[in-house]
Amino acid sequence: MKPFITLLCLLLLATVFPSSAKKVKEGSVGVREECPCELAPRPDIAEKALTARWMVHSLDWGILATISTRLGGDTSPIPFGNVYSFVDGTCEKSTGTPYFYGTYMDQSYTDSLTHETVSLTLSEASLSSVCTERDAFTSCTLGTKYGDPENPVCARLTLTGNFVALTEGTEEYNFAKEAIFERHPTMEDWPDNHEWVIAKIDIEDVWLIDFFGGASILTPGEYFAAMGDER
User: Fold this and answer.
1) d(CA 10, CA 4)
2) What is the pTM (predicted TM-score) of this model?
3) What is the mean pLDDT of the chain?
4) Helix or strand (DSSP H, E) at 118
């Protein structure tokens, strides 16, 4: 009897969600035909600041770390990491400043009200994770010789600074909103009753590993100047 019930359930699912069933069979769930932005070439290994800027403009998500207001308390601060999408500008305009679209219903935004210092950690391994037409770097890919996200040649970057909510209607707010909806288009359809807030990290420290020999520590001035911007 159980095999018959299982078969009946599968037939019902295929009837209600025929296109989804087809996609599962073809292995194409979530695959889009093209990425929002064309990927620029990776900078030379010697160009540390430019590599950091390339990562912030090219990658689509990272781990936003805050000091938790839910765990630990003031006497024993505990970090909390949360996956967040971000942009540093439109496809054509890189600013180097990461912008976020979130709500104070979320833990990370809530934490920032008490402890404004946050960090954003990025990995080059995520490059093809949400934009599947991009080729993954072998230095980051499991199953290749030496490939692993922890391989120093698979670049990782941490930006640290203050989490600042933008004032709605300002030039910077409107620019960030346009960029977010261009590069993360589904966000535009998220429910209005969440009181969305656009925020940024005011960068104070840049930590990069993209090769053997330890981390490169960059000042904000070096980081922004790599693409001709001023801090």
Assistant:
1) 10
2) 0.82
3) 85
4) strand 117-123
